Amino acid sequence: MSKILEVEINKKDKEVYTIVIEPDFNKLPEILVNIFSSCNKFMLVFDSNTEKYFREKILQILMCVNKKIHTFSFTAGEDSKNIITVQSLYEELIKYNFERNDVILAIGGGVVGDLAGFVSATYLRGIRFAGIPTTLLAMSDSSVGGKTGVDFMGYKNMVGAFHQPKLVYMNTDSLNTLPEREYLSGMAEVIKYGYIWDSKFLTYLSENSDKIISKDRESLEYIIFNSCRIKKEVVENDPLEKGLRAILNFGHTIGHAVEKLMEFRLLHGECVALGMMVAGRIAVNRRLMSEGELLKMKEILIKYKLYRKFEVSEVSFNLNDVLLATKSDKKMQGGKIKFILIDEVGKAEVYKDITDEELLDGIKEMFEG
Ligand code: NAD
Ligand code: ZN
Fold first, then answer.
1. For a pocket test of ligand 1, which of 24, 48, 49 has the largest count of ligand atoms closer than 8 A to its C-beta?
2. Nearest ligand by distance to the CA of 140
3. How far is the CA of 262 from the centre of ligand 2 (A)?
4. Prediction pTM value
5. pLDDT, tens digit, for every residue of 32-64?
6. Which of 86, 165, 285, 343 has the most Cβ atoms closer than 10 angstroms to its Cβ?
7. What is the tens place of the pLDDT at every residue in 281-297?
């Protein structure tokens, strides 16, 4: 079992990077040596959880690689994705004389990837970078596309850069230690890909939920490979986010609003799932989707424990608060929300003409009653 996907970085120069999907870390040393033959040093970046689970294992497996290896870790969580952690990592790189041809390896979820990627993009005006994602979200989403960055002044991903890795190595077995809730939250993005791009993939997700939830190796390889393939197809068509790439935000306009209103007590994917149901309701009201298709979306989300409705008494916000939070999203263009709707399963479209009334009718979908 082994899967390889090549992602284009630069159309003109036909530059690509490789995504490797494996059930272990065994091939990592050989691949690193091949790709980074000219480097002298690796800086392995972990957070406190991935350090606990993977530091020893990876150090051991890299013993045969004839390079100097340093490690850096920071407290797990979004709160660490900031300029202060970036500065500590710069300091460490300077302390150990990291040079242009040396390499940063990010071992962890999207937080480690975004932060280590940003440091790689900016240290010495850019050094090489490889990702070893260890969450489903990082494997299926954040490791493709080249976005890096940190949060600033309370704004998510406010400071960042586009910087592509040279290699992404995914060990599907590394998901075994990931808490179930984090894992299922990542499934929201995977389901999203089915809706925006590939109805056959969605059918697979619907019919194989037991295997996927139990982290069956073959199913993991299949869903991660196809998620990366779909994101790659979308991103390669729109590397700098001029148009098409916006469809990756399906479920996210409302999702981000709920994330903020819930003060991040719900995980990202859990909010995206709510956002997909709201978008689904708006699409039904516009007669783009049928009631039956929306019911199917609900059923898939239920299978992955991602479906919920709020009791009005359970939360401190109402329909209007969700509307306001949605409209304050920084992804608005000229005061208009770019909203992604599904025209048919497997095909998404960007809409800029969604009215407040339509939004409110859609938002009702996430409240009981
Ligand atoms: P995360 O990196 O915080 O990981 C979630 C939790 O799981 C953390 O506590 C982490 O320590 C722990 N963890 C990671 N791997 C583990 C493992 N194998 N076993 C046990 N615990 C493990 O969060 P995430 O959901 O992976 O990523 C979210 C971040 O990704 C956000 O900051 C978001 O902005 C970013 N993101 C970036 C992009 C992009 O294109 N760059 C896309 C989507 C999301
Ligand atoms: Zn997302």
1. 49
2. 1
3. 16
4. 0.96
5. 999 999 999 999 999 999 999 999 999 999 999
6. 165
7. 999 999 999 999 999 99
